[in-house]
Amino acid sequence: MKTQSKILVIIASLLLILTFFFPLWYIDLEAPQYPEGIGLRIWVNQISGLKPNDLSNINGLNHYIGMKEIVPDAIPELKVMPFVMIFLLIFGLLAGILGKRSLVYIWISLFIVTAAVGMYDFYLWGYDYGHDLNPNAAIKVPGMAYQPPLIGSKMLLNFNAISMPHIGSYILVAAVVLAAVALYLDKKNRTIKVPNA
Amino acid sequence: MNRKYLKAVLVGIAVVAAFVILHYGCQESKDLTSGDEAGRVYVAPGTYDEFYLFTSGGFSGQIGVYGLPSGRMFRVIPVFSQDPEKAWGYSEESKPMFMTSHGFIPWDDAHHPKLSQTEGIADGRWIFINGNNTPRVARVDLSTFKTAEIIEIPNSGGNHGSPFLTENTEYVVASTRFSIPIPDKDVAISSYKENFKGTISFVKVEQDGAMDVAFQILVPGFNYDLAHGGKGPSHGWAFFTSYNTEQANTLLEVNASQNDKDFIAAVNWKKAEEYVAQGKAKTFNTSYFRNYFDEKKHMGFSEEKKTVKVLIPEECPGLIYYLPTPKSPHGVDVDPTGEYIAAGGKLASVIVVHSFSKMMKAIENKEFETTIDGIPVLKYESVIGGEVNNPGLGPLHTEFDGNGYGYTSSFISSEIVKWKIGTWEVVDRIPAYYSIGHLCVPGGDTRKPWGKYVIALNKITKDRYLPTGPELTQSAQLIDISGDKMKLLLDFPTIGEPHYAQSIPADILMKNSKKIYPIEENAHPYGIKAEKDARVVREGNVVHVYMSQIRTHFAPDNIEGIKVGDVVYFHVTNLEQDWDIPHGFAVKGMQNSELLVMPGATETAVWTPLKEGVYPFYCTDFCSALHQEMQGYIRVSPRGSDVAITYGTGK
Fold first, then answer.
1. Residue B649 in contact with partner chain A when CB distance is under 8 A
2. Is A158 within 8 Å of chain B by CB?
3. How large is the ipTM?
């Protein structure tokens, strides 16, 4: 690969560092009683609130419908994900430094697989929280489940739950796009150079 | 003859009719409004007022909090008086705040709220207020709107001239309204002239707000009325009105109204600091209490102090001067530049405005009329800056708009008079309904007035509101002063008696307003941080219940093993960490008030059950959908019963 493309792949890899500083996803809950907003922020390695205490306040609200408490320490994915991210970072750096197109293709593939698995896992957790409810809960609505949407918004009793990618996800997308651009430019340069050779 | 007579009668009728028409035609209806006033005070649902207004509760002992321009009331802050709604003075934690050298005092007469200042500008950290009856000064924290400290003023007969401030809140001042023997002793009241003295106190305010009486000045036995700190060039001085310079001890309405001039006392407090540092102050034995609320421990503490430093003017030249001022002056108000000192001579025919620079020159040139107990009396002509003529009857108080005008309340003629600083001419006047006392311009006694409104604080409302029996509502009036002519916008009721008020732009306070107390910072010795720590502990006949509250249950909510004769302490911690989710607590037959526990706080109620039975308890603040389920039971067994302590929730 040409230097230009190598640099782009290296930049794409280094972008992953930023995912440790921005949440990947958010789930915000809208209700008249919460004009100031209440919501969750899902990071590579933790779940936090939109504001301090939001996680415990959401757990407090969820107990009325019998939802399990969301305890970030009990979610193994949050312990694994940082290592996956660091692996992708190092892999990408190597691909960039070595300048091998095949490695970049593999990197992008790994990336897409990781994202797909991650989304499916996120769905499973959402399904579990939304369906595995305490039968003795104070509020029981027949046929009602409280699974938040994977992406988009949905009314859950008095709350409108909005689930959307956060800055971290956009950074991941930017990294993949950069790597793809690097491949494209490299290919273009080659095809131009062939007649001159 | 007959025709002439008829003509005379017709002329007579015409004249009478003309007078009637003239009379009613010219009479200005007090309720006439031109139509846009409603829009000027309308704050649409869901939007905020522009200013906070803090009014004194007078004999209610509290502070009322309102929004301007709407006049909507948001809160009553309990200060000197017990308030069962908030358990103020009923919870174990707040009881120490009411301690004085006269014991637990559940009430006071609160007159003058005063916002803390930095460089002469209201900064919104605290608001101070005086207790007039049992001399005290309170400090209210404006991040929590809760009373943080109350200090008693020793050697005082009544703390009226208080709690006015120096420019950077270095000191809160306090002057005694009633002179008394100092130290107090058993003497004949008729020995007033010989035995009675006044004091002017300077209470030091530390950076964290902690107060202590730094020093007092022993002054002649007059009545000391009101005060204001100097600012700008007059920073370093404080001014105090006095009346009853006749030193009468009976029928003051006559006997204290004889002298043509009484005095404004000008105190050089920087000089006083020097004298104290030099050891010139005498140490008087006394007793006074300082009570403060520890926000981390969620608990009030009370400490007794036994001595106070006193300066004697005769031994401290240059400490204090008297400015002759007609006639029984009430308010003393310093203009935003710090140069002019306006006096409300309540029986005077003019508003007297002293000049600070002329006062300094007169002191330098020793232009003294006489000396009273070591205090030089300056010559009136030497200190006078100007006189406002035709100010209305009974001028009391002046506030300023920052645009070169003063606004003086006139009690007897029931009006506000606007006059120009420098030319001293009256430029406008507007009636007040009725009998205005103090008035308030936001920041109007500071270096930076927000001169948009003046608020009239009235003593009498008569026909202004729906009647409520012999006692009618107290009231304030909002008047627009943004144009040349003052314009009445709104009447609104207030709690207690609004003596003085203070106002500040809302954005200065809003951003500091606390939402919760972080539970991890809760250092209450009987507080708990999680439901698993809830428990009941018996120590002899004392039982401590460590109780938690969270939507929507108490832990424990079933308690057995309490016996008649036990002293039960409920230490109730609200574990919520969400804004606007207090929980209440009340037990059937409790001899004190409910508790209203803020998120992250702990409060304690003591209960002595008098007879056996089962006692329900419940949350008194509608907290959530299952609030009505937030309840519990306490079983009380006979004295000497062998029912063991057991407790739990959901078992």
1. no
2. no
3. 0.85
